[in-house]
Amino acid sequence: MNQVDNHITLLVLIGMAGMLILVTGFLLSLVYAQRKRSQHQYEMQALKEIQQNQLIEAAVRSEETERHRIAEQLHDEVGAILSATKLHFLGIKPEHLNERDLQLHTKSKELLDDAIQKVRTIAHNLHSNILKEFGLNEAIRHFMKKITDGSMITTHLNLDDGYDIKESEDDISAYRLFQELLNNILKHAEPSEVKVESRFKENILSISITHNGNGLTQEDFEALRYKTEGLGLRNIQNRVILLKGLVTFSRQGNSYSIIFRIPKNNTTL
Amino acid sequence: MLRNIFDWSEVWAPVIPLFAYLLCKNKGETGVIFVFTYTVIAIILNGLADVVWHFNHLMPSWIQSNNVFYNIHSIMRCSIFSLLFIKQADDSMKKRIYRFLLCLYFLFVIINFTTIQSILFFSSYIFSAEGILLLIMSLPCIWQIFINETSPSIRHQPLFWIATGICIYEAINFFIFLFYSSLIKIDEYFAVHIWDIHNVFYIFFCLCLARAIYESGR
Asked: Which of A36, A81, B112, B133 is surrounded by the most beta carbons within 10 Å?
């Protein structure tokens, strides 16, 4: 072999090595750039989720503050005025009234008592005193009793007494979630029987509401919550996001179930 | 035994994507059709080339060289994958440029085999032209896939595997193709062994095609 032949052999080897390095370098740099881009997108997505959760949290917290303010004003101001009105009203001697005025007096007294009772009920519903003092289970029991008292609905309550965490902020949201769901059931599903159960296991609180009315499946919920009129369902979804929980709607035969699961003590679902 | 398996690698390697095609559920996809067409042609041409090479003493005098099959294989590979890249190109300007380059390539093939070289001899020019053309088309294709991709699923794109396979195969073998005719004359032993490297990357290329078909059927 002469020198030119040697050069050709060398050129082939160097050329192959050079091409291998170039192509591998090109592909690796693309893979690296793509990974960096994916990571950036992932970080942006995470940041967006954090911001969204902060907004939801702010909205839910301000709603709660507003509820408390309204409840306090109803109780302290409207309730006080109504009580004072009743006091003044009781000052009217019925024996001095004729039959027509007596009837009006009796009716007015009934309406006044009714108004005082209604204001108290609304104030208590809006406020979360029981929740703060006695915990979530007691608040649910109290709410169930209040909402179904005097109605034809049969209720079954089976709450896990093992859950005794006094963590008011998250429990307020869980309680509001329960209130919203139960109100929706009573308003739209028209059930004759409602069963509420809770279970606290492995730091996850599960609350299930089963009823025999005209309920929602998961598909119905997904479809309805994006509609403008579905404010209640969107509130439910917001609270679930805030609690980092999960809500599922299902149907078994003639009964519908809603189960919401809330992680506690920094657990994740 | 191992040497024999390696010598016949150009025949059995295209069977891998063909096998993937038989298992593929999405046989109608453009990339899959092109790869299947190439695979069938490659098996036939490489099979004939290897049979002629191994049993050339039994062949009639007019077909004792397998170079004609290699030349046809190169033209077919270049045509099939160029057409695929033209079909997959994302803008009309790129399509026009690719079509123009493919026409230039065909013109060069005709001129080469009518005036410069005989089709019965291994044509380094044809192989090199194929390498250049497919590199010109595959590199922008890979770049385009990376630019357009927003989720981390590039490895699930059939075209990515086809373009990567072609790009690596053509880039590594470009200098072998370019100097193979000269190498055969100056150092046959070296030329035969350097063709083994070609065979390794041909197996890699076929594995990429098989992966592309597999990803289409996912």
From this structure: B133
